[in-house]
Every structure is written in C-alpha cells, then in structure tokens.
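Researcher: Batch entry, complex prediction.
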Amino acid sequence: MAHAHESNTKKIWIVFGLLSLITIVEVIFGIIKPDAFHLTSFLGTSPLNWIFIILTLVKAYYITWAFMHMDGEKKWLRRSVVWASVFLIAYLVTLLLIEGGYLYDTLAPLVKW
Amino acid sequence: MEANVAIPSDSKETWGGGGVKPFGASYGKMMMWFFIVSDALTFSGFLAAYGLTRFKFIDSWPIADEVFTHFPFLHGVHAPMYYVALMTFILIFSSVTMVLAVDAGHQMKKKKVTFYMFLTIIGGIIFLGSQAWEWKNFINGSYGAVKTTDGKVLQFVKDGHQIALADFVTGDRMDERIQQTPTNGLWFEGEGTMSQYSVAQVQKAFASNPDIAIRSELIDPATKQKIILSREKGLVELAKAKLVVEGANLKVNEYGNTIFADFFFFITGFHGFHVFTGVLINIIIFFNVILGTYERRGHYEMVEKVGLYWHFVDLVWVFVFTFFYLV
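Model: Structure tokens for the complex:
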C-alpha cells in the first residue's frame, strides 16, 4: 500500500477539521432553519433537507476514504465494497420511500392505522 | 481435509490467508470490509424502514427539535441539537484518535499506538454515557401529554411554548387510583408505573385555565410547525382523552406516534450496541498492544482492522444524526 510507512498525521487533522466544520454548519442550519430553505420545496423535500443529505454524504466520503484508507485499497476491493453498498442502499431506499408515500397518499384516507 | 485446502497452510499465516492476497488485502482485512458491507445494509434497512414510516405519517411526525431539547447542567433551557452535535464530535474525535493509532502502528511506534488506542476507548465510553443520558431524558420525558381514544397525542402549550403537566395540573386525582402492586392489588398482578395525574384531573385543570391551548400532532405544511387548536376544539379533543402519558416506552410516548419512539430505541440502541462491542474489541486490542503482541508479529494490522470497524460505527452515526435529528 502506498501509505504503508509514511506518516499521514497532517492529512488526518485536516480531515478532522473538515468533518467538524461540516458538522458545525449542519448544526447551525438545524438551529436557525432559514425559512427560504426550510419552507420551500425542491425535488420532493425542502432544500434544507437536501443540504443535510449532501453534507452527510460528503462526511461519509471523507470517513471512508481518509479514515478507513479506502484511497489506499486496490480498485476492485474499493468497487466491490462501495458499489455493492451504494447501489443496494439506493435501490432499497427508493422503493421504501415510494411505498411510504403511497401509504400516506392513497391508503391513509381509507385505513385507520 | 487436505483436498479441501486450496492453498498450503502450514505457515503461521493461515489466518492471514497464507501468501495469496486477492485485491492485495489480507484475509482479515477483506473480511472486515465485507462484514461492514453487510452491516451497512442492515443499518440502511432500519433507516429506510424509518423513512417509509415517516413518509407514511408525514403530516404528524414528531419534530426532533421539540423532542431532544436537553443539555447537561442547563435545566429548563431549550437547547435543541447541541447535545447530539456534541456526541457527534466525541465520536468523530475518537475516530481521529483511532486513525492516529493506525498511523502510529504503520511506523511501529508502540507507545503512540497505546496512547491513541486509550484515547479512542475513552471517547467510546463517553459516547456511550452520553447516549445513556439521552435515553434517560427520552424515557422520562419532560412535559407529559394526553393520548386520546383515536390514538392521537395532545400536548399543552402556553404562549406558543410547550408546558409540562406539572405546570398547570393541580388538585386531586379524582379517580381514587393508587399504584397497583402484587401486595395491594390482585395477589398476582402489578402494573407499570402509573401516571402522576389522572385524565379527569388534566381535563379539569385545562378547563379552568383559559390561557392554555392544546397542540395537536398534525403539522401545518405552511409553517412546518405543529397545529395549535383553538380552546373550543381543544376541549372537544381533550374530552376524548383516555390516558395520561409521561415519557416514552415501546407502547406509548408523549412525543407523538408510538412508532417514532420504537424507531428511536431500536436504531440508536442498535448503534449503541455496536459502539459497545467496538469499545470491548478496542480494549482487547489495547491490551494486546501493551503486551507487545503486534510488535512480535511485525505489524499492527489488527489495529487497522478494528479501526475499520470503529470508523464504520462513526459512519453510521453520521447517518443516524442526519435522519433522526436534522432532516
């Protein structure tokens, strides 16, 4: 592995700073909840929620690549792990969220839960 | 037996997969990655189910800011988000010390590995303690509410802010109930903790306090706030009350939908259990480091492997944090 014996301490602290910064931004947005982002709608949910989701994925990327050293692994180990998870999870989430929307829109007026 | 062994395993490296290394990774490390994939799918199953349920109850889901409002030593202060943000920092920081331990391991610096592993364990323990505190607040509740016969939770507000039952309910229970225990009830039967106030008592107190209003479960889509009912409507709704709810359990909770609390307990509990096992495994590896096991083995790859698990636990928390507290 490329990172085998050199020290990555500096990079680790930079990534820590980045993750902290993203978390702080998330928390500030979560507390203030600006109306322009919170009460409007974009692609099915509020832009605020999209900001949270995208920042979360950025954090996930940095944790996996920098902390779990995914960047140092061989291409196909990386792909077998990341592709398997990303595609299966995206598939599952898509199906279940559509189903949840159906339960609310179509079934809820007819059924007493 | 011999026929089943694909590669010669007479060396001490059997557990490490011998000399054959697919993907250039050792057996243990690759299996840790694939375990993480399966565990990630389990967690995403839970979170996706949470998403489905939330979409199903999109017009009445509890608002996280109104549920998680505590911060240590700040009693009565409305402090949403800060505490989970702190927990997130603790976990991210323990991830950093873990990766520093792995880094020190690559340079064969035993003392540094020991020190960073120690910090990681402490971080994990602090996180577990924080989660226990979070659960304690969630289970005890802070305001109390009333559940109606049609399964809705009614909360009480004054000047737009939620108030506790204790703030306005006074007087006698009026239903002559006392906690039933095996000694004073039927000889074989006890009951769960009885609520402090009776339904009749709450109804009477509400009727005699005109400045208190009832907050329904329903969310106003325009403001994304819970709808506060008028006094008349409130009295009608409150007449349907069947149960005073204080705090949360798996059957009923003061925050809203029962299944909200169920998901909270299940997902944060499952994650907390992962943190707990992570701490245990880290402790084992910590002692192995002190004993010089990896020094003799010639490499600190085991630290790297538990590191992967530990980072994964952090990764899951990042998603739990977003979907439970932010979105």
